[in-house]
């Protein structure tokens, strides 16, 4: 945390990683940009000649631009797998529109008198294009390329979600781990890259081109393209490959612990949990860091490896709520605690499966469950006040948020607002401490290790001690943040390593120790 | 030199050029005159195939222009545009070298020829490294003309070449061009809407309206023997000035011709137009040019001459 380590300390300690992430970031940006230039510039010239289809093509490129980046990345996993390939394709698609539109605008805005003069003097179409239209459109075209570059430097951070590396590893790892130094170590170089690229391109933009010779363009292009491939993280392959979330990569009860306590030596990539399970199912990854109650476990036929040396602390869920909200509406405590004891690990996995895999809405799944367990009462449409329930951005949290909504609106006179999908732990917790939400479901392990950042002694002492951890976070949150932990619901959504069932069985791997031994012996 | 036969060109439903024919002899200046939208520019642009006619044929030196590749044809025809059409990203020197470069001239030849034209067109050598935006309107137009003359094409097409200039610059440049030897030898087709310009520069004028030719002839013919009411009305406003411009001093003072035949000295002064003579007298009355003509005498002789022409008709 920032109290114990300065930003520069972090950077110098992680300089190798920072350097390789920066290079990968540059590589991803440049390759996708060059591909986009190769496609969009000729296409822009073409539509400048065919005004009739121009609107349709520009519209299509505009639609591509509006697809949320993470969705676009997810869609491409089945075709392109994980790693740099889908990331480059996604970045390429985002870079298309600005380049296409500016090429089109640049060419169509060349003074027709000039083109007429060129034609009248006996220039052929190619000569007019390369000596008149492109040189005159060049500043506008370059402006488009600059826009695309800046967009790409930004979007390339998301490449970390699909194991393509880049500075996003630090940024998302930092957000997940509540580590500001880590966020800045990713964000500052990314911003500097954007500024540097933009500056370099602005120098190119100022060149007065008399004519565009093919050799001027092709040679530097090839040079940059080839060197960019060199910067990319080496292709994945060969032995077993693990894909871990940015959060897991940086945690003591995650990858760091696996290395320290199990001496696990496995090649790893960083990946978003949104695509991780699917990537494992598609044989792109062999080991992943999942959550033990995740519905995808059931859907993709994955098994969890036994944590035989107890590095994953207990992650029991409780609603955590601002003391002020509780003081204002004391009836909430009893209502919220009603859920306690109704859900165990397998119940939760099944509920998650319905949402994540059967694509039922969290509202419906929560409602069905509450009705089945006689916890449902029709909403009183209360007006006494408003309770804001937050949730992190995954199915289980959505379901729990809905269940609490049903409980509160059915049994109190309070109105309920849900603010679901609040990124990671840090975002959710900051929303709570800043009075943007009143409560959200949190896990004891996360509260203990991420939000309280305990020293090693304490971690050792409380390791695996379910009640000990709960009591500790309960006390500390009350003291430090004036936030209350209510009664745990009952299930333990802890971290787990997962593998495909058939692979684990054929290799006789049941526990993490088995996996470590297998990797050592092969 | 140029023969145009039955040109027709439609744009959508409107007929821009309707059955136009004319001929331009070698070394002649033909002016296509008319109001905007009369089809004069379309006609001009068909000569270098910037526009293809729907029907009709054009011959250059007896050859159908469709036999040549359009690019090759255009490189052999000088083309001057209203807004000069200089490439803004090329220096003056580079602009001038465009056509020679297309024809693969070597550098020394281009240099030599540019220097020659710079001299003839009163362009300062220091302008050659400047970009067109740094030039005055008159300079830009001169460079535009120099560019069209670089490879010394026998035929020159000019589309409102002085249209973008202010009146004073226009008159000055026009006078210069009239005396430019490079232009005197050329076969020129020029488009203008300016009657005065047409009379000053044209050997013959082709007056057009709504895509059709109303009359083709020398300025004198158009003024004094209009083919229709349209033609005579077209010049109504500037008639006197045009008439003075279209007759030479020796036309109204036949005795001057005789004198000049005997004695070479005054020959030159008898070849100026009545308008220019009047200009001289108004500006500078004190000088006697040796012909004993004053303003009153000039006007009297002019009206006698006019009566004589209408009597002939």
CATH topology of the largest domain in chain A: MetI-like fold
Low-confidence stretches of chain A: none
Query: How does CATH name the architecture of the largest domain in chain A?
Result: Orthogonal Bundle
- Helix content class of chain B: 40-55%
- Helix/strand class of chain A: alpha/beta
Largest sheet of chain B: 6 strands, mixed
Number of domains of chain A: 3
**Strand order within the widest sheet of chain B?**
6-7-8-3-9-10
The Rg value of chain B, from CA coordinates, equals 21 Å
Count up the domains of chain B: 2
Find the CATH topology of the largest domain in chain B.
Rossmann fold
H and E order of chain B: EEEHEEHEHHHHEHHEHEEHHHHHHHH
Unreliable spans of chain B: 263-267
Please write the CATH class name of the largest domain in chain B: Alpha Beta
Shape of chain A: elongated
Strand content of chain A: 5-15%
Percent of sequence in beta strands of chain B = 15-25%
Distance N terminus to C terminus of chain A? 38 Å
Question: What characteristics describe this protein?
Answer:
heterodimer, A: 522 residues, alpha/beta, MetI-like fold, D-Maltodextrin-Binding Protein, domain 2, Dipeptide-binding Protein, domain 3, 3 domains, 25 helices, elongated, B: 313 residues, Rossmann fold, 2 domains, six-stranded mixed sheet, 17 helices, 10 strands
């Amino acid at each position: 945390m920032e109290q114990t380590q300065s930003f520069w300390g972090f950077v110098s300690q992680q300089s190798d990683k920072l350097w390789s992430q920066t290079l990968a970031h540059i590589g991803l940006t440049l390759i996708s940009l060059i591909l986009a230039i190769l496609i969009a510039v000729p296409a822009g010239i073409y539509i400048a000649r065919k005004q009739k289809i121009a609107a349709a093509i520009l519209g299509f490129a505009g639609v591509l631009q509006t697809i949320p980046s993470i969705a676009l990345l997810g869609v491409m996993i089945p075709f392109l797998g994980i790693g740099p390939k889908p990331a480059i394709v996604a970045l390429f698609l985002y870079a298309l529109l600005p380049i296409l539109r500016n090429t089109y605008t640049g060419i169509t805005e060349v003074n027709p008198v000039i083109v007429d003069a060129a034609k009248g003097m006996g220039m052929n179409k190619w000569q007019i294009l390369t000596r008149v239209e492109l040189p005159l459109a060049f500043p506008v075209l370059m402006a488009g390329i600059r826009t695309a570059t800046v967009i790409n430097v930004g979007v390339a951070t998301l490449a970390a979600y699909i194991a393509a590396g880049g500075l996003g590893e630090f940024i998302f790892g930092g957000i997940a781990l509540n580590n500001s130094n880590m966020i800045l170590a990713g964000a500052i170089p990314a911003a500097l890259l954007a500024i540097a690229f933009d500056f370099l391109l602005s120098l190119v933009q100022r060149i007065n081109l008399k004519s565009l010779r093919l050799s001027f363009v092709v040679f530097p292009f090839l040079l940059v393209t080839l060197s960019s491939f060199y910067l990319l993280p080496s292709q994945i392959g060969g032995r077993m490959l693990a894909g871990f979330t940015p959060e897991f990569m940086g945690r003591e009860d995650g990858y760091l612990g696996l290395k320290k306590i199990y001496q696990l030596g496995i090649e790893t990539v960083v990946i978003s949990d949104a695509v991780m399970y699917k990537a494992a199912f598609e044989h792109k990854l062999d080991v992943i860091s999942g959550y033990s109650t995740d519905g995808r476990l059931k859907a993709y036929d994955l098994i969890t490896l036994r944590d035989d040396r107890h590095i994953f602390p207990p992650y029991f869920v409780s609603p955590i709520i601002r003391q002020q909200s509780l003081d204002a509406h004391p009836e909430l405590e009893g209502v919220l605690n009603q859920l306690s004891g109704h859900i165990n690990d397998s119940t939760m996995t099944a509920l998650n499966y319905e949402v994540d895999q059967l694509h039922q809405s969290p509202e419906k799944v929560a409602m069905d469950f509450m009705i089945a367990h006689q916890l449902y009462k029709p909403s009183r449409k209360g007006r006494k006040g408003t309770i804001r329930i937050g949730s992190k951005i995954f199915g289980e949290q959505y379901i729990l948020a809905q269940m609490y909504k049903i409980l509160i609106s059915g049994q109190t006179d309070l109105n309920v607002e849900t603010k679901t999908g609040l990124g990671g732990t840090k975002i959710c917790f900051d929303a709570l401490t800043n009075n943007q939400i009143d409560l959200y479901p949190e896990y004891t392990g996360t509260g203990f290790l991420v939000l309280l950042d305990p020293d090693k002694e304490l971690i050792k002492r409380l390791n695996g001690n379910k009640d000990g951890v709960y009591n500790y976070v309960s006390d500390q949150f009350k003291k430090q943040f004036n936030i209350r932990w209510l009664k745990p619901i009952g299930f333990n959504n802890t971290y787990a390593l997962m593998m495909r069932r058939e692979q684990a069985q054929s290799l006789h791997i049941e526990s993490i120790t088995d996996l470590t031994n297998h990797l050592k012996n092969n | 030199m140029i023969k145009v036969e039955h040109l027709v060109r439609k744009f959508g439903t409107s007929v821009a050029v309707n059955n136009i024919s004319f001929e331009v002899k070698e070394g002649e200046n033909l002016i296509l005159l008319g109001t905007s939208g009369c089809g004069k520019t379309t006609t001009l642009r068909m000569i270098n195939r910037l526009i293809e006619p729907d029907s009709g044929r054009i011959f250059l030196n007896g050859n159908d222009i469709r036999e040549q590749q359009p690019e090759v044809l255009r490189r052999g025809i000088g083309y001057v545009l209203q807004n000069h059409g200089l490439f803004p990203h090329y220096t003056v020197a580079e602009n001038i070298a465009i056509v020679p470069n297309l024809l693969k001239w070597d550098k020394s030849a281009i240099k030599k020829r540019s220097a020659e034209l710079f001299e003839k067109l009163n362009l300062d050598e220091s302008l050659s490294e400047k970009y067109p935006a740094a030039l005055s309107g008159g300079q830009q137009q001169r460079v535009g003309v120099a560019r069209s003359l670089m490879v010394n094409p026998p035929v020159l097409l000019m589309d409102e070449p002085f249209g973008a200039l202010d009146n004073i610059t226009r008159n000055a440049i026009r006078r210069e061009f009239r005396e430019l030897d490079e232009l005197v030898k050329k076969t020129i087709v020029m488009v203008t809407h300016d009657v005065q310009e047409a009379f000053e520069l044209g050997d013959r004028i082709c007056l057009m309206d709504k895509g059709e030719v109303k009359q083709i002839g020398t300025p004198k013919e158009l003024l004094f023997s209009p083919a229709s009411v349209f033609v005579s009305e077209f010049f109504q406003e500037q008639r006197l000035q045009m008439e003075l411009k279209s007759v030479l001093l020796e036309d109204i003072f036949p005795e001057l011709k005789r004198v000049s035949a005997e004695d070479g000295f005054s020959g030159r002064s008898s070849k100026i137009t009545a308008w220019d003579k009047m200009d001289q007298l108004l500006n500078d009355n004190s000088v006697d040019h040796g012909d004993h003509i004053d303003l009153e005498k000039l006007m009297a002789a002019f009206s006698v001459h006019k009566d004589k022409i209408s009597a002939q008709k």
